[in-house]
Amino acid sequence: MTAKWRPGAVVGPQAKVMVHLPDHGAQTARARYEIDTALGTETRIVNQKGTGNRWVELGVYRFGSNPEVRLSSITDDGTGDQDIAFDAVAFIPGTYDVPGAVPDIRLPEPNPLAPQPNDEDQPIDVLPGGPFRGAGAPARTQGTMTAQDAAGLLDASAPKAGCKPVKGKPDTELCIVPRAWEPPARSSARPSDELRAGAAATASAATPFCSGNSAARFFTRTQGCLQSLVDVQQFVSGSLFASWTFTYQHEIDLAINSTTFTQRISLTPYRTDLRMVAVSIDIDPKCTPNCTTGPMSWSSPNLWATATDLHTANATVNQTWTGTGGNDRLKLNWTLSGRIEGKQTTTASYSSNEMSVRCDREAKSSPNPGCVFPDYTPTYVVNSEENPAAAAFYWILMQKLPSHPGSRAHNAPLNYLASTPRQNENRKVICPKSGPDRWVGNPASNPPGTTSSCDEYPFAATYQSGGMPPQAVSNGKECTQLYASPPRRRRVDPPGGHQLQPGQHLERDLRPGQHPR
């Protein structure tokens, strides 16, 4: 005999199922309850033995339009001499926060022809401050400098420490002074706007990555930008006599499959002064250790003859890592110096700091050695169309595990483990292929004609792996286990309407532990 219980109204999307056991006629230890849910049929075995009337919870489930609970008089250990109690069943709708529960995820069929995501399309990280330490206030005007403009430069009203005296003119000193970055703004009041717009377009073409963001310092895994304003100043008898301001854009382009990287620099007059002519700026790049620097190539002169000369000077230089070991972290340094009518100014230097470059032969993503910004946290884009189950697997564990491994939102990046032997040891712990604790796939995960495999997250090639000390488990059985499977068949009354719905569902084996498998 089989008894069926159906609620008189729609329940859900969630409901708790309770069964009542009376104080008599409840003798079996193996009562088999079947619960039809939105995801298929679940089975729960209940020990009905006990004293007194009581309610027993079968669990919390998601229900569709036809929820049903069934109980058969046949058990898997039946001998015909024990009673089974058939009593009330309660469906209790509500929103239940079940610890560790997997959300209701319906996945599409995998598409093996899905295009691969663009891994180079990475979010931009913005760094605080500018490239020059202690840079002064931004310039206050754009265009040709007036006496009123000069009077307004309060922080430049006296010679900077170390300004260089001009030989034969002890009352004259020349300086180069970096200023905080201020994205240039056009002013329709000046007739030179058209010329300045043309210069800005030239700079954008030469440094396209820099031109896409108004921050002073920002980078991705393979591109970086540093932007500043730079003043070339002349002081006479201790007072500012004249000053030019340049926009300075410095772009660094790396490659994951090349040890040679390119730097591009654009200099554009932002504000000029009729009293100062023949202004030039030189740049001296350095790279250490195990690094060579090629010649600086200017596509247009880095000399501005008059205050109406507003051309952009673009420079390119290549640097190459020459290390023979596994990796080197390179420090980049640049020194700027100016000239006014051939007379040398002081110098101003800056370093890569948080944008230092790492070149190595250890990354598995490229067959050739290459270079990246190691302080940038890259984002791995999962092809959710090609591997929907894997994408759901990673997402669930990033949300549910307390450490949120690999979650950009929780600032919890995974750290790459380069050691292949250690990676293999991690896999042996989580997905052992032999021994009493070997991994055995859930039968529901591989219907006839398919195979299943063991994967782990966090990955074996990361320091966050469940097999990696100090958080290492003894074997994968201690881990939360998820598996993908087609929807299970639901019983249909009357018989004859069995269907296997398309798509996949992500199921959960409830086992203790912190690390997924």
Structural overview:
The protein is mainly β. Helices cover 9% and strands 34% of the residues. The chain has 5 helices and 27 strands. The protein has helices at residues 147-152, 193-206, 208-211, 388-400, 420-430; strands at 2-5, 14-21, 31-37, 40-46, 54-62, 68-72, 89-93, 106-107, 125-126, 143-144, 164-166, 169-179, 217-219, 223-236, 239-253, 260-272, 279-288, 291-293, 297-298, 303-304, 313-321, 327-340, 343-351, 357-360, 370-372, 481-485, 504-509. The longest helix is centred in the middle third of the chain and has 14 residues, at 193-206. It is elongated, with a radius of gyration of 35 Å. The chain starts with a strand and ends in an 8-residue tail after the last strand. 32% of the residues are buried. Residues 137-160, 186-198 and 490-517 have low confidence and may be disordered.
| Amino-to-carboxy terminus distance | 41 Å
Structural class based on helices, strands and sheet pairing: mainly beta
Helical coverage, percent range? under 10%
**Rg from alpha-carbon coordinates:** 35 Å
Q: Spans of 5+ residues with little confidence (pLDDT < 50)? A: 137-160, 186-198, 490-517
Backbone shape: elongated
Taken as a percent bin, the fraction of beta residues is 25-35%
User: How many alpha or pi helices?
Assistant: 5
Strand tally: 27
Mean pLDDT metric:
81
The largest sheet, given as strand count, sense and whether it forms a barrel, is: 11 strands, mixed
Short description:
With 517 residues, the chain is mainly beta.
